[in-house]
Write a structure and sequence with these properties.
This protein is mostly helical and about 50 residues long. Helices cover about 60% and strands about 0% of the residues. The radius of gyration is 20 Å and the shape is rod-shaped.
């Protein structure tokens, strides 16, 4: 296998890995967003503030 086939194969592998990572991350975010028991971020406008 020479460089002519290796480079596109590596590029497609990298793109596929990034795409799979993005899909899994989005699914986890959507799952957490719909979970009412998930703690709110301290940066959220409606989160309880520990600073007083």
């Amino acid at each position: 296998m020479d460089l002519v086939w290796l480079l596109p194969l590596l590029a497609l592998g990298t793109i596929s890995a990034v795409l799979i990572f993005a899909i899994v991350s989005k699914a986890r975010v959507e799952e957490r967003r719909t979970d009412p028991q998930a703690p709110k971020s301290t940066l959220a406008a409606d989160a309880p503030s520990s600073r007083r």
